[in-house]
Design goal:
Radius of gyration of chain B: 29 Å
CATH topology of chain A: MetI-like fold
Low-confidence stretches of chain B: 1-15
Number of domains of chain B: 2
Largest sheet of chain B: none
Number of domains of chain A: 1
CATH class of the largest domain in chain B: Mainly Alpha
Radius of gyration of chain A: 26 Å
Number of helices of chain A: 11
Mean pLDDT of chain A: 83
Number of strands of chain A: 2
Strand order of the largest sheet of chain A: 1-2
Strand content of chain A: under 5%
Largest sheet of chain A: 2 strands, antiparallel
Order of helices and strands of chain B: HHHHHHHHHHHHHH
CATH class of chain A: Mainly Alpha
Chains: A mainly alpha (338), B mainly alpha (356), C alpha/beta (258)
Oligomer: heterotrimer
Chain lengths: 338, 356, 258
């Protein structure tokens, strides 16, 4: 492109959306070749993403409908997953229960602990301790889930026995912590929940820490100048400002927990039993079910697994949407307006 | 002056400026005391679970701290102390398993990790026997991740450019929304999609490439997000300065906007690579797994590091466990190196406006 | 309730850097004292040592004594939190709590001190907002977010929040520098009213403002960039602006430097 030419022409704008950057420059209908190519490339990439997304939903639905239409059980309420027999009988009741319960317990543990660690790093620890610590948490967030799975199965499971027995002995009356066979291997939904919590703690901590750091200094000083203690500063300035950030962070963690395959597949001793005895080795989750049954599945069995995957997909969509709604609703009071 | 003000005054003026009556080492002393009493009760009552001992100590510590501070300094200080104790407790509680994870992996991983392990496949090695290695899995991981990167990076970066530089209308909104949605797709669902599309409908066989396609789906939204953030950091003044010189928009993007943020973009890409290198589920569904070296990602089953770990774990014997740990260590090291590279680039190319 | 401040031999540090050096002065109760001086001379830093906010900055450290009536703020065992309760502060940029309503912003400090009775809070909130000349503008929207007000209103809201806890001293760190002239005037009028009840110390870059609002003026300067800031002189505002005893003060005021 030669310089005189470029010097004459004002920068062109994209055709239809009024470009914010080019304000005040006359809009010319003619786009130069480079610009047109560039817009085509970048817009095309974006459209490709949309197509992939639509394709995911479309293909999964297509295969899933095929499978569900031949299901001789009720897809939503059937406990077992029998796709190899004729007629096939399978349902997601156990999987949905396991997925949701393990994720909820994991969140109940991970969110407060993560907020605690993030606060520790940003507001309590000495700077010299804080930055290597932040770095460590960063690295832990990057550890692949299969490694958590391996550690969970070979290290955590045997070490959970003591805790399980203790819970059974003192909290057995809650039903939830009652072990049907005290001392059985801790390949239970409860252990899975703990492992999931350990896995998502670094993720939630990382994002929350970033959010806490972005709390404007002046908000904290406002509280300090009123004579607030450190905890009151956090309660008055830090937590309200960071609330939507904490929600996003938690949803990110929840998404991970819901869809986690390997850490569950390695730890859980699965079965098609739906029970609130969380310490018993039984149950299953969507992702774990796919990993466990995929190997021996027939073509039809794969379609059935896809149907399960679709439900998981929809659940993650709902979780994401809910998070978005919560954040949008809190916009009026968000710190961004100050 | 109304009476509210004066009685408020009296309340505070009476003691003037409050002093902390507790010396600084009080929490430490209470902590030590709580641990001792916790152990005492635990041992005395014959409780065999150490979890229980710890729990008793923790509760004693928090309660003791609260009571002592409340009596000496008042309820606000007491709340503050409790919050501090809880924050510390969270930290300690979480650091134990995370430390144990790293420690166990390293301790068990170094057992069989040597040149032989890195340089050989599992070809001809019985699962129950010691020996064999991860060479084929490393090849698989590198190729699959490589292909995914080659596809995902241009699409992701261009999408981000569209969103930041051109995007205004409904299309941009839709893309932003679905990129967010895509970020939340579980990896196994991405795997299932490629399975139904590539293998069940188009009729291709299991291959490294199929796995790479699933990894691409996982990688694209991460790259869009990080690149978008980086492009947004480029000040508008720079773009305007370029336009004012008569530089067309696309050249402004290519020669001003992208170079300014290139450090951040590369950092994002490297982190995305680190992230997908550890994905197991899609590989499990699409690459099928293999014991031998297969250098061709487009034809025939391959292995990958995460898949290898899962496979060895499932063999369920000590020799296989050793291999699983060693492979886990290799994988962690790989991910750590990628992370360090990303950090290095971020620091090296950091924009001059350093944050806090 | 307004108290006298006696500073002696006070130095403040950022890490190893001495930002202000050996400052001594007395601030009388129920007066307005203005700090003026070129940028970087340490007047804001000094202001922040008066309610122990300086040590909140990483690396911040203070030597010397600040007596509030007869009590040393830096005495051993003194709780900085209670110091800040007694010495209120208004910042350069208005900083109402963004997530709180106007009412909650004013009540924030009271609630911290355990005052929860609605009727009592209502009374103090109204009184403080009236005291900050803001009541008439906001009385119909007390439950709207404080961040929705204009800049000048936000700053008065911050003043209301600060005086709601009835401090002994009110520190103001360039409270008008982010405001338009009309809002500035409103704040200046307010300062004139507040000095009936509080000891006020204000940092300002605007010399007319110092001349308009203050009883006494302190001039700070630094020998060179990188050197600590020092108190050059403190005197009746009238004298500082008409007949200062130090040449540097006169140079600064007449616009010859700074």
């Amino acid at each position: 492109m030669d310089t005189t030419q470029t010097a004459e022409a004002p920068p062109p704008s994209p055709p239809q959306p009024p470009a914010d950057l080019d304000q005040g420059v006359q809009q010319r209908p003619v786009l130069r070749v480079g610009d047109r190519l560039f817009l085509a490339f970048s817009g095309g990439s974006g459209i490709l993403l949309l197509v992939v997304m639509a394709a995911i939903a479309g293909f999964l639905t297509y295969r899933a409908v095929n499978a569900i239409s031949q299901d001789h059980g009720n897809f939503l309420t059937t406990f077992e997953w029998n796709t190899g027999v004729t007629p096939p009988v399978f349902g997601i009741a156990v999987l949905a229960f396991g997925t949701i319960v393990s994720s909820i317990i994991a969140m109940a543990i991970a969110v407060p602990v993560s907020i605690g660690i993030a606060l520790f790093i940003t507001h309590y620890a000495h700077r010299r301790v804080a930055s290597p610590l932040a770095y460590l948490v960063d690295l832990l967030a990057a550890v692949p889930s299969i490694v958590y799975g391996l550690w969970g199965a070979l290290f955590l499971v045997p070490h959970m026995n003591g805790l399980d027995l203790w819970l059974d002995k003192y909290f057995g009356w809650t039903y939830i912590f009652d072990q049907s066979a005290p001392g059985s291997a801790a390949r239970s939904l409860f252990t899975v929940s703990i492992l999931l919590a350990i896995m998502i703690i670094p993720i939630i901590t990382n994002v929350s820490r970033e959010v806490f750091r972005q709390v404007p200094r002046m908000h904290e000083e406002a509280a300090l100048a009123l004579g607030a203690t450190r905890w009151e500063v956090i309660r008055l300035s830090v937590l309200p400002f960071a609330r939507s950030g904490i929600i996003s962070a938690s949803m990110l963690g929840l998404g991970r927990a819901l869809g986690e395959t390997m850490a569950v597949a390695t730890v859980l001793s699965s079965s098609s039993v739906l029970s609130l005895h969380l310490l018993d080795p039984q149950g299953g989750t969507f992702a774990q079910n796919i990993a466990a049954h995929f190997g021996e599945a027939t073509d039809f069995g794969r379609d059935a697994l896809i149907a399960g995957g679709l439900v998981l997909f929809v659940i993650t969509l709902i979780v994401n949407g809910a998070a978005r709604l919560i954040i949008a609703r809190r916009k009026e009071y968000s710190g961004a307006s100050a | 002056m109304s009476h509210t003000a004066s009685d408020l005054g009296a309340r505070h003026r009476g003691s003037a400026i409050a002093r902390n009556r507790l010396p600084k080492w009080t929490p430490l002393a209470i902590a030590a005391g709580a641990v001792v009493v916790g152990i005492g009760i635990g041992a005395g009552a014959g409780l065999d679970s150490h979890v229980q001992w710890g729990l008793i100590a923790l509760i004693l510590f928090v309660a003791g701290n609260y009571v002592v501070t409340r009596v000496a300094d008042g309820p606000r200080q007491a709340k503050d102390r409790v919050a501090t104790s809880l924050v510390y407790a969270c930290f300690i509680l979480a650091i134990i398993p995370l430390y144990s994870l790293i420690e166990t992996t390293i301790a068990k991983g170094v057992k069989v990790l040597d040149g032989n392990f890195l340089g050989h496949s599992m070809s001809g090695v019985l699962g129950t026997q010691p020996g064999g290695g991860v060479y084929h899995a490393i090849i698989g991981t590198l190729e699959q991740v490589g292909i995914a990167t080659v596809i995902a990076v241009p699409i992701g970066v261009f999408t981000a450019i569209y969103l930041v530089e051109y995007g205004k209308g409904a299309l941009a909104k839709a893309i932003t929304f679905f990129v967010d949605v895509m970020t939340g797709i579980p990896s196994i669902v991405a795997g299932l999609f490629i399975l139904s599309f590539w293998i069940l409908i188009l009729g291709f066989g299991f291959s490294g490439f199929a796995g790479a396609l699933a990894l691409t789906i996982l990688m694209m939204p991460i790259i869009v997000r990080s690149t978008e953030e980086m492009l947004k950091l480029v000040p508008n003044e720079l773009r305007e300065a370029s336009y004012a010189l008569g530089v067309p928009k696309w050249r402004t993007i290519v020669s001003i906007v992208v170079p300014t943020s290139i450090g951040g973009i590369i950092t994002g890409v490297v982190l995305a690579i680190a992230r997908i290198a550890g994905e197991t589920a899609p590989v499990l569904l699409l690459v099928f797994g293999s014991q031998v070296i297969n250098n061709d990602p487009f034809e025939g089953p391959q292995s990958s590091l995460p898949f290898y770990i899962y496979e060895q774990y499932n063999l369920g014997n000590p020799a296989a466990y050793d291999r699983a740990w060693a492979a886990a260590l290799v994988l962690i090291i790989l991910v750590m190196i990628l992370n360090l590279i990303a950090r290095g680039i971020a620091r090296w190319k950091a924009p001059k406006t350093s944050g806090r | 309730m307004a108290k006298r401040i006696d500073v002696s031999g006070l130095s403040a540090f950022y890490g190893g850097f001495r930002a202000i050096d050996d400052i001594s002065m007395t601030v009388e109760p129920r007066t307005v004292t203005a700090f003026i001086g070129p940028s970087g001379c340490g007047k804001s830093t000094f202001l922040r040592t008066l309610n122990r906010m300086h040590e909140v900055t990483p690396g911040g450290r203070v030597e010397g004594k600040v007596l509030l009536d007869d009590e040393n703020l830096y005495g051993s065992g003194v709780d900085p939190v209670s110091v800040r309760r007694t010495v209120g502060m208004v910042f350069q940029r208005p900083n109402p709590f963004p997530t709180m309503s106007i009412y909650d912003n004013v009540a924030a400090g009271l609630r911290l001190n355990g005052r929860r009775r609605k009727s009592e809070l209502d009374a103090i909130v109204e009184k403080s907002l009236t005291g900050a000349n803001l009541w008439n503008e906001v009385k119909d929207r007390l439950n709207k977010p404080g961040a929705g007000l204009s800049g000048g209103q936000q700053q008065r809201l911050c003043i209301a929040r600060a005086i709601a806890v009835e401090p002994d001293v009110l520190l103001m760190d360039e409270p008008c520098s982010a405001l338009d002239p009309i809002s500035t005037l409103a704040i200046e009028d307010l300062i004139g009213e507040l000095k009936e009840r509080f000891t006020i110390v204000i940092v300002t870059h605007n010399m007319q403002q110092a001349a308009r609002v203050s009883d006494r003026t302190a001039f700070f300067n630094l020998a060179a960039v990188g050197k600590p800031g020092k108190l050059i002189e403190i005197d009746e505002t009238e004298r500082i602006f008409s007949n200062p005893s130090v040449q540097a003060t006169e140079d600064y005021i007449s616009g010859r430097f700074g």
